[in-house]
Amino acid sequence: MKKILVLSSIAFTAMLSVMLTGCTAHKAAMTPAADNTLTSKEKKEGWKLLFDGTDLKGWHSWHKDFAAANWIVKDGQIQYDRTHDNDGDDLLTDGVYENYELQLQWRITKGGNSGIIFDIQEAPKYSATYQTGAEMQVLDNIDASDNKKQNHLAGCLYDMIGDASVSKPVPVGEWNQVRLIQNKGQLTFYLNGIKTVDVKIGSPEWDAAIASSKFKEKYFADFMKITKGHIAVQKHPGSSGWKNIKIRELKD
After folding, report:
1. What's the CA gap between 110 and 82, in Å, rounded?
2. Which phi and psi angles does 24 have, rounded to 5°?
3. How far apart are CA 109 and CA 240, in angstroms?
4. CA dihedral 182, 188, 191, 194 (to 10 degrees)
């Protein structure tokens, strides 16, 4: 009897050890990466950081070869510094991207306005990032002055597609989660897990959206004509913060 009890105790201890090991492994797998880092799984999936939380390596200001003083790194974030408002314009990636999934987090101050602009062509003849690139809107929907049109709200394809039914930013000062996917001309936006845009560039829906937007004007003759380019965070009223900026290029 004593032998049976000893064996049972050993078996129970072994089983408990296996269960605890499994729980520990599961917990580790479920724990998100620290800010501005990648998990082993993300690395295997091809994700790359565009910002490491320490400096602006890999970024430059519009029509400059360096990041101007109005963009700083503080507390592990890219921040727009309004005290240097005249020192530079939008902040662009050095790299150009075509088919990809971009993820990042943003937050904005009260009344703030910014954007994520992509497919930017930086030739000298262009005077602004948004002359060629489309924008996923970043906005304080409540207090920003540019909140009068539905497709100007946070998460929308600016001045083209989206409305209040899908624009659900978190309260000012908290972090919003973005997924922006461009794959063979198909654009899909998510803000805080809600799909806000799903459109094919050049489709009838796209052409109709252009026709009813400011992008029909002559100044925007080259707007989204090339679906490959730089990605930018926009200089605009209000201070913005950006972190966990990562990209995965889509190969097939």
Report:
1. 14
2. -65, -45
3. 6
4. -150
Residues 189 and 153: beta-carbon distance below 8 Å: no
- Backbone φ and ψ of 88, nearest 5°: -175, 180
This prediction has a pTM of 0.87
Q: What angle do CA 74, 235, 124 make, to 5 degrees?
A: 120
In CATH terms, the superfamily for domain 38-249 is: Exo-inulinase; domain 1 (2.60.120.560)
From the CB of residue 59, how many other CB atoms can be counted at a distance below 10 Å?
23
What confidence tens digit (pLDDT) does each residue in 77-100 have? 999 988 887 778 999 999 999 999
How many angstroms separate the CA atoms of 188 and 204, rounded? 16
Domain boundaries, the chain: 1-31, 38-249
Half-sphere exposure of 160 (CA within 13 A, CB side): 28
SS3 95: coil
Contact between 180 and 136 (Cβ < 8 Å): yes
For residues 179 and 63, give the distance between their C-alpha atoms in angstroms, rounded to a whole number.
27
Q: What is the pLDDT of residues 214-248, one digit of tens each?
A: 999 999 999 999 999 999 999 986 778 999 999 99
